[in-house]
Amino acid sequence: MESIIEVKSLAKLFSNQAALENVSFSVKKGETFGFLGPSGSGKTTTIKILTAQLVPTDGEAYVFGVPTSKLKNPEMRKKIGVLTDNSGLYARLSVFDNLKLYCDLYDVPYSRIDEVLEMVNMAGERKKVISKLSRGMLQRVTLARAFLHKPELLFLDEPTSALDPVNTRHIYRGLERLKEEGTTIFLTTHDMNEAEELCDRVAFLNKGKIQLLDSPLALRRKFADHTVTVELSGGEKEVIDMGPAGAKALHEYMSENKVTSIYSNEPTLGDIFVEVTGRKLS
Amino acid sequence: MTFSMKRLLAIFNKDYKDLTRNLYVSFTLLVPLVLAAVFGRQGIDSIDLYYMVFNMALCLVAAYIQCSLIAEEKEKNTLRGLMLSPASTMEILVGKGLLSFVTTILVIGISAYFLGYMPENLLIVSLGIILSTVFYIALGTALGLVTRSVMEASVIIMPFVFIFSFGTSLSVLAEKYPILQAADYLPNSQLIMIAKEVEMGTGLAELWSHFGIIGLWVIGMALITMVIYRKRMVD
């Protein structure tokens, strides 16, 4: 399948301190690719390099087969949507006026404004002035602006970091809709649930290096200890291996009607990250 | 290189709406107008005084407002959004300068009316003012790009307001300090020279050196602005 992003041995130094070291990966067309890592791990630096906001110290980065240094072409810009920590809005203007500017810049009809506001759960808020919005609402307008022009590739840096669970879920549905329409999404997050829910593949970034890269399912299987925990009626818990011996034990408990709960011991992405890096995802 | 009028006007319209709701910046427009109204009522008839008001308008409106608009875009992280959009460097810079340009010309026009100033040759004087406006807008853009906030922009512009509003007075001291003769080559001094010579009936062909000097200031400042802008496109 066609690669939309191709990164080879990317490195970035800030005053001799490595923010990225020998980072290589590719993102396929239509894929939602997650970059997981704690604050300061190099996630935003990667997005900034891929959107030509930063120049790498070493290595190569291509977007749509074009070196990132050549991304200034208007036609290329129209293919890309970006939400980063430095995506600002005009505080004295309304939500509509902010999005109208970008409709004109990207040659998009104004009717698209209501569509994107609905996607971020802000239908009916178009007349509100930006300075009067809460942090979560600002985040949603900025997100709406990022996919206003139906980009082929969307870069999202911590897109739900300021949102409550209800709006987070709404955004997830919106992103799933974009994915169904064929949008490739490059997402950075330190929220493992978000990565599990949205991403086809994830890369674990720690101290500027990729530690692991695979699908969430493959990673969970790889790090699974193949046991389940059984809670018994007496309140005691038993960890049972998922082999034939465990099946026999489980069968016995169940025949004796002792089992109150069974749950998998499969690790979450967060557990795997901690195991691999020794660091927490926060 | 592509150039889209639609994108340019979109930036202009956004800035216009934003400026009308920005009391801090739009209040600045009143300073030269009030000064012109006061001098006009006193019936003062002096090219130097007229051009003190016009040069102040150029500094406060063309340079300062432009500087504040750019600095605020940087402070609020909105400039990066424009830079990442399909709008080219030229569309953004011209779009952002257009509002300052129109406002400056309007303020100078109204000030001239208040002052009762009617030049012998309106076309030549207008050319000089238009060329000077472009220089001050480029200056404001460059200063806005190097500052991080509107507050910082208000401070950094002050020495430039002083030099370009009152720099002509420095040439009075040139006999004692010959280096101050350089003040004659400032764009504001050149504009006054054009205005004075126009009153004596001098034609455009004989004023080319003054226009040439202002033109050099425009080209130099435009190049500096372009270089700074391109550097600001990346972190």
From TrEMBL, chain A:
PROSITE patterns hit by this protein: ABC_TRANSPORTER_2
Every ABC transporter domain range: 5-232
Alphabetic keyword roster: ATP-binding, Nucleotide-binding, Transport
Keyword Nucleus part of the UniProt annotation: no
InterPro entries, per the entry: AAA+_ATPase (IPR003593), ABC_transporter-like_ATP-bd (IPR003439), ABC_transporter_ATP-binding (IPR050763), P-loop_NTPase (IPR027417)
Pfam families: ABC_tran
Originating organism: Cytobacillus purgationiresistens
Entry protein name: ABC-2 type transport system ATP-binding protein
GO molecular function, one term: ATP binding
SUPFAM superfamilies cross-referenced by the UniProt entry: P-loop containing nucleoside triphosphate hydrolases
Automatic annotation (TrEMBL), chain B:
Transmembrane annotation, as ranges: 21-39, 51-71, 92-116, 122-146, 153-174, 207-229
Keyword RNA-binding listed: no
Membrane topology annotation: Multi-pass membrane protein
Domain ABC-2 type transporter transmembrane residues, every copy: 47-225
Pfam families for this protein: ABC2_membrane_3
Keywords carried by this UniProt record: Membrane, Transmembrane, Transmembrane helix
Annotated localization: Membrane
InterPro entries per the UniProt record, alphabetical: ABC2_TM
Name of the molecule in the record: ABC-2 type transport system permease protein
Organism: Cytobacillus purgationiresistens
